[in-house]
Amino acid sequence: MKEEERAPAPPEPRTEPPGTPVRTAAAARARARALVDARWNRVGRPAREEDVIDLLLVVSELVTNALRHGGGLAGFEMTPVRDGIRLAVRDHRDEAPAPVGGPAPLPAGHRVGGYGWPLIVRLARQIVIDRLPTGGKTISVFLPVRTAGGPA
Questions:
Q1: Pairwise CA distance, residues 131 & 84, whole Å
Q2: pTM of the shown model
């Protein structure tokens, strides 16, 4: 087969070089997608798209909350584990997000906040908020990533 007849290799996902700090929600989502591709999609056991969407939503919301409400993003870490991804986002403010209310409607005129934190609480597991001795906090969560065609 001639060189020009070969199909081109699929492009590698565009990500920042390893070790580059994440500064935006878009960069965090790109890093999360690249991790899923490397850990699940390239080894013949593709991740369920529903789980990837949940991961990308939570990544985006945590980073956006750190940027908007946490005095800026101080750290972003993802660790793949056997059944998902552990995510930790650090910011510069000590205040924890407002608790998410129950199923009862809020009193008229009362607003707890936006949709980001309730979305995180709904989609993530093992949510831990650690206040740091030097100031700020880390919000750590676990997000399951199952393989396509596996148990729901």
A1: 24
A2: 0.78
Two tokens, residue 60? 């985006």
The fraction of the chain above a pLDDT of 90, given in percent, is 60
118 Cβ neighbours under 8 A, 6+ residues apart: 100
Q: Answer for the pair 125, 105: CB distance below 8 angstroms, yes or no.
A: no
Q: State residue 91 phi and psi, 5-degree precision.
A: -135, -175
- What are the structure tokens assigned to 16, written together? 């920042």
Numbers of helices and strands, H then E, in the chain: 3, 4
Residue 17 to residue 87: CA distance in whole angstroms: 19
Q: Are strands 73-81 and 137-144 parallel, antiparallel or unpaired?
A: unpaired
